[in-house]
Amino acid sequence: MILAFSPESPQCSRAECRADASRSVVWRNPKIHPADRRKVWLACDEHVEYLRSFLASRAFPVTVVDGVSDGSGVALDEDAR
To answer: What is the pTM of this model?
Structure first.
């Protein structure tokens, strides 16, 4: 189960943003998460690039998918680090 994940009214994960989420930013921290682990931040259209860039700047593999996802089955581009 994902904490604070409400499929009825998914909201953007950006601090203080309560806009409806339209995309999922799927990522993992390779220093602490095994290769099959996925973390998900939900994003509105305004903040999706901010959240993706924040994670990519830390060399985390990250993929953005349309819609609200729990991250299962989403491939991360491990070479993008």
So the answer is: 0.86
